Amino acid sequence: MPTTAPTAHALSDVTASDSTLRRFLHGLPGVDAVGLEARAASLGTRSIKTTAKAYAIDLAISMVDLTTLEGADTPGKVRALGAKAVHPDPTDRTTPTTAAVCVYPDMVAVAKEAVAGSGVKVASVATAFPAGRAALDVKLADVREAVAAGADEIDMVIDRGAFLAGRYLKVYDEITAVKEACGTSARLKVIFETGELSTYDNIRRASWLGMLAGADFIKTSTGKVAVNATPANTLLMLEAVRDFRAQTGVQVGVKPAGGIRTSKDAIKFLVLVNETVGEDWLDNHWFRFGASSLLNDLLMQRQKLATGRYSGPDYVTVD
Amino acid sequence: MASAFEYAPAPESRSIVDIAPSYGLFIDGEFTEAADGKVFKTISPSTEEVLSEVAQAGEADVDRAVKAARKAFEKWSALPGSERAKYLFRIARIIQERSRELAVLETLDNGKPIKETRDADLPLVAAHFFYYAGWADKLEYAGFGQRTTNGHSGSNPRPLGVAGQVIPWNFPLLMLAWKIAPALATGNTVVLKPAETTPLSALFFADICRQAGLPKGVVNILPGYGDTGAALVAHPDVNKVAFTGSTAVGKEIARTVAGTEKKLTLELGGKGANIVFDDAPVDQAVEGIVGGIFFNQGQVCCAGSRLLVQESIHDELLDSLKRRLSTLRLGDPLDKNTDIGAINSAEQLARITALAEQGEAEGAERWSPACDIPESGYWFAPTLFTNVTQAHTIARDEIFGPVLSVLTFRTPDEAVAKANNTQYGLSAGIWTEKGSRILAVANKLRAGVVWSNTFNKFDPTSPFGGYKESGFGREGGRHGLEAYLDV
């Protein structure tokens, strides 16, 4: 992946100071909320059937970041999750593996062992997840611990307080510091918690801020607040990565997270990807679902397509 | 991993609609043959398949229908408004119940995508009947009174009598609703001529009138060509003429009606300007431009067919627009994933083709996305013209097809001057994040409808109509009542 395309230099000036960064972010095209939501809703009416549905379900399974982020997580729970990521449907070995398992930093080593040799990545939510309200040193220590334990991906939350106060450079500096701590071995997903940014204009600005600071992925939310991924905010972020690549040559991934529970919903998101940024992003290197309950619905739909009959929750595994 | 995400076909079943091999005229509550026995065929524009044979009304039939409407007028106009409202509400509910059937029928007969008939046309059709049903018993509060001998308005507005209505083929059922709902709500009776290429949904509507128990003669439907319409307009016992269609025909009607007591409203052509300022919400503006000109294959009188882009963002916007056009799906209109359906008729396709060729000949730069055109039927790929100036024919003439002319401007004044520099004045659009600019520019645009940060949005509560050669009179909203009342 190119990191210093020729045109990227033109954008490096904008991070020179808080005021240049502010001017740049506030100079981005506005977002008309009504129009954005109407477009997302109209793409949601695409009728996906038969072969296209089978393709979409397998693609969606391969894009799932299977997640457990509970205070009660144990090594046993994480091992079970790892096993499921490798063989989502034990009755059908043609089922693709999920993209990753996502755990807290202290569980990275366990997860790593559980998915060893399968190609499934281990992602870890570092940086004082989910509030992000800790000193930078603490966040960086969190990241280093996860990376040292073998995490392939780091999911960081931004400091929403700083963002909403207009201290964009502080947010930028934190992201670049975390990116540096990721080194070359881990890809960085930057979580905006879009529900707390509240306006679409803010979400577009945050997307660009994240990408300028070196995010490999931009991600909607933690799944821990009331409003998480929506078709509209995901469409908006897809437009941002599309425009960013056009301007800098750098491709950035997108991850909607939280609240996507059914195959039908997941397919709607894939339609958004297909018709906004196209094939280049229809791959788990560039698009992910942060959703754990989604996987079982995808598996049940997959079984239905294979057998012509609906099974039930006991025909797929609990974690 | 499989290659691209190709959507499998998702066709809407046509078994829900039962099209008879032949249909008669609907006069005085009965289906009947034409006096001279003439018939014509209606075909499906996407396949050229003959759908049905339809009776063609002649002068004698027009006379019969007007007489039936005149007779029905006495009782219908004497009903309390609340009684008329009951019939209109009943019609509205039947339309909702049969909306899937009507959507499939309209798509078959017109060629427009099922997505649009299902999600735009039919909900609006029902909404118009519901809206005007609500007015039927409140006419005294609409602000229009009966004309008194001293020229002042009094209370108690009265209906005009028999309304002769002629509607186009682009929104067959919706235009019927725009005309019939206010006419009946105000106590008039109706003789309506649907377009020759799309008569079926009006004939299904006749059946709905019977299903609703509407008194005989209140609504009469006379399929036919231009001469049928001309006979209806000229009939001495018609009190009100309402026409939606081309400006040329509108002028002819105005000449016919001139000097008579008939009241007239005309909804004619347009060449709407869609103005995009450099601070516009770009992604939504692109959607609005697409919806403005490619909705219903551009066969919309208020289409945003002239894109006026601020020069500073021209290249960027055009790149976005072309990329977006490449994702439009053209094909079988019954497929739920189709965005662009068929052109309504061979004649219309020929007209679009000729105007597009003229655009090229006059030096504008033509662009279309790569798309497969089906072998049978009438199709025209979505088309953009750049380097267009006010002097080009494609910037002046209404094309009534999926063809967008792109022009540029440098200042708001220039945008307004160019937008207004047309013989038409039906619609316009403004795209900017600056609220004060929306108000300032909208006030200077001579167009009946000005949309801001959206386009082609309709609502029964909102009046619709034109300036200049786009016609006069308003349909929809409280204003739409005036055209059917003696005020």
UniProtKB/TrEMBL annotation, chain A:
GO terms for molecular function: deoxyribose-phosphate aldolase activity. It comes from the Bacteria. Its EC number is 4.1.2.4. Keywords: Lyase, Schiff base. It catalyses: 2-deoxy-D-ribose 5-phosphate = D-glyceraldehyde 3-phosphate + acetaldehyde. Pathway: Carbohydrate degradation; 2-deoxy-D-ribose 1-phosphate degradation; D-glyceraldehyde 3-phosphate and acetaldehyde from 2-deoxy-alpha-D-ribose 1-phosphate: step 2/2. Belongs to the DeoC/FbaB aldolase family. DeoC type 2 subfamily. This is Deoxyribose-phosphate aldolase. It comes from Streptomyces cynarae. The gene is deoC.
Automatic annotation (TrEMBL), chain B:
InterPro entries: Ald_DH/histidinol_DH, Ald_DH_C, Ald_DH_CS_CYS, Ald_DH_N, Aldehyde_DH_dom. Residues 32-486 form the Aldehyde dehydrogenase domain. The keyword Transit peptide does not apply. This is Aldehyde dehydrogenase family protein. The keyword Secreted does not apply. Keywords: Oxidoreductase. The lineage of its organism: Bacteria, Bacillati, Actinomycetota, Actinomycetes, Kitasatosporales. SUPFAM superfamilies: ALDH-like. It comes from Streptomyces cynarae.
